[in-house]
């Protein structure tokens, strides 16, 4: 493992004043910053920048807001103001000319952009291992939100520098995660996307300690977290799940409709030799049998995954093994990357033949053609079925949404021709009328 050290995570302090609506705004901003790798700290001294979410409802609230801004400037110096009082920028700047930015209520993107200006997010995006797409995640549409449950990772995959950069797994307290989820749902979120570097390892670092949520005990463990999230009445989608044995516990929850029957498992390869060189966790030759078993319990289950082709030492035989495995596994949603070395990753030191670029490209194209045929055939089977669709966008041509098959930004869409008066965030029942390799077309019922 590389011993290269990289800068610590940027740190944000946050003061949230005002009513529950302001608290919800704070939660959305904090959720976004946390997901981008910022640490949220509780003292002015520890923060690289302080955000004050103000209340401007009555004069006393405005006075308190101005006082807190003053305190933050005195104690820290780098202060961004948002919230209801932000609409009175002139009044704030008259008293505190040194504030760095002022935005109004629900201007999530502007606040996050202002934080980026003062303390940039970490620039170590890697498409093979990162939790979010390179373009980042917009805070709109507002009907889905990412819920980060832990930081760091206990594994040592040879192509990855996350453990040396972000350290070992640190699980967030289960009560905090569930409180955040509850506030997001109160703010109108209809879909929670659970993310971390290794979602199935949640709680390992704290020995699955029992926490509390709404006065009841809840274990810091993936299954118990999912059970609790399922009581919030929104879609719960799991990303970055490794196939540890206890993942089997989730399948009955999916079959019972408690969480979405969707598992994002980054398999990365299938050849035992390549997986060993990659040092991937939780892989064994029974994975295909487990997938079969999961589908017997929950026939609806959608499995998404990503793969790497052209890893050092990958032979044509290994690659053919991967294609055959894909034929057997019948995964629904698949992404593929050509291997490229990450600075500081142990894979760079492997004593293995480097796969030439033209061979990587050829394998990537063959992989994509192979999997597209599988994905297209699986989507064809959905034609005629009734599905619930969460609407993401509406324009004059109709509506675009997603059903449980599709995570936002990375999977497909459902295109709906409808005259109905619907808006983003609505859930409507549809019948599937057509499909291609990625997307579905449907009519509203
Ligand atoms: S599981 Fe492997 S790829 Fe994922 S963060 Fe940990 S070391 Fe990196």
TrEMBL record:
Cross-referenced InterPro entries: Elp3/MiaA/NifB-like_rSAM (IPR006638), Methylthiotransferase (IPR005839), Methylthiotransferase_CS (IPR020612), Methylthiotransferase_N (IPR013848), Methylthiotransferase_N_sf (IPR038135), NA-bd_OB-fold (IPR012340), Ribosomal_uS12_MeSTrfase_RimO (IPR005840), rSAM (IPR007197)
Gene Ontology molecular function: 4 iron, 4 sulfur cluster binding; aspartic acid methylthiotransferase activity; metal ion binding; protein methylthiotransferase activity
First-tier enzyme category under EC: transferase
Catalytic activity entry: L-aspartate(89)-[ribosomal protein uS12]-hydrogen + (sulfur carrier)-SH + AH2 + 2 S-adenosyl-L-methionine = 3-methylsulfanyl-L-aspartate(89)-[ribosomal protein uS12]-hydrogen + (sulfur carrier)-H + 5'-deoxyadenosine + L-methionine + A + S-adenosyl-L-homocysteine + 2 H(+)
The record's free-text note on cofactor binding: Binds 2 [4Fe-4S] clusters. One cluster is coordinated with 3 cysteines and an exchangeable S-adenosyl-L-methionine.
Any one cellular-component term (Gene Ontology): cytosol
Domain Radical SAM core per the UniProt entry, residue ranges: 139-377
Binding-site residues for [4Fe-4S] cluster 2, renumbered to this chain: 153, 157, 160
Binding site for [4Fe-4S] cluster 1: 19, 55, 84
Enzyme Commission number(s): 2.8.4.4
Main location, first listed in the record: cytoplasm
PANTHER family linked: RIBOSOMAL PROTEIN S12 METHYLTHIOTRANSFERASE RIMO (PTHR43837), RIBOSOMAL PROTEIN US12 METHYLTHIOTRANSFERASE RIMO (PTHR43837:SF1)
Protein name: Ribosomal protein uS12 methylthiotransferase RimO
Gene source species: Pseudomonas endophytica
Name of the gene encoding the protein in the UniProt record: rimO
């Amino acid at each position: 493992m590389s011993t290269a050290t990289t800068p610590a995570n940027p740190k944000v302090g946050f003061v949230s004043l005002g009513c529950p609506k302001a608290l919800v705004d704070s939660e959305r901003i904090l959720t976004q910053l946390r997901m981008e790798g910022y640490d949220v700290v509780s003292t002015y001294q520890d923060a690289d920048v302080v955000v004050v979410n103000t209340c401007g409802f009555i004069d006393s609230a405005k006075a308190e807001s101005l006082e807190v801004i003053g305190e933050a400037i005195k104690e820290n110096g780098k202060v961004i103001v948002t919230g209801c009082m932000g609409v009175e920028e002139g009044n704030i700047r008259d008293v505190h000319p040194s504030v760095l930015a002022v935005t109004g209520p629900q201007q999530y993107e502007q606040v996050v952009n202002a934080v980026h200006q003062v303390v940039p997010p970490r620039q170590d995006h890697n498409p093979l291992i990162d939790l979010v797409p390179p373009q980042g995640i917009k805070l709109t549409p507002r009907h889905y939100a990412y819920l980060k449950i832990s930081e760091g990772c206990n594994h040592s995959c040879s192509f990855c520098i996350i453990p040396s950069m972000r350290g070992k797994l640190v699980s967030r307290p289960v009560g905090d995660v569930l409180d955040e989820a509850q506030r997001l749902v109160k703010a109108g979120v209809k879909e929670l996307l659970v993310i971390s570097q290794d979602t199935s390892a949640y709680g390992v670092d704290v020995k699955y300690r029992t926490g509390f949520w709404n006065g009841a005990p809840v274990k810091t463990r993936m299954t118990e977290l999912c059970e609790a999230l399922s009581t919030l009445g929104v879609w719960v989608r799991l990303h970055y799940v490794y196939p540890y044995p206890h993942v089997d516990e989730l399948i009955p929850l999916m079959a019972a409709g408690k969480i979405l029957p969707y598992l994002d498992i980054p398999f990365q390869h299938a050849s035992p030799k390549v997986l060993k060189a990659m040092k991937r966790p939780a892989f064994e030759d029974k994975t295909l049998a487990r997938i079969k078993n999961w589908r017997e319990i929950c026939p609806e289950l959608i499995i998404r995954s990503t793969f790497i082709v052209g890893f050092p030492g990958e032979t044509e035989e290994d690659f053919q093994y991967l294609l055959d495995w894909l034929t057997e596994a019948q995964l629904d949603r698949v992404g593929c990357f050509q291997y490229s070395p990450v600075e500081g990753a142990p894979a760079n030191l492997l004593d293995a033949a480097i796969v030439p670029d033209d061979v990587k490209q050829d394998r990537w194209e063959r992989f994509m053609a192979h999997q597209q045929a599988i994905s297209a055939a699986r989507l064809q089977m959905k034609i005629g079925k009734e599905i619930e669709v969460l609407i993401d966008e509406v324009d004059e041509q109709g509506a675009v949404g997603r059903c449980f098959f599709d995570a936002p930004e990375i999977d497909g869409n459902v295109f709906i021709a409808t005259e109905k008066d619907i808006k983003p965030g609505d859930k409507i029942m549809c019948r599937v009328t057509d499909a291609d390799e990625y997307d579905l077309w449907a009519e509203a019922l």
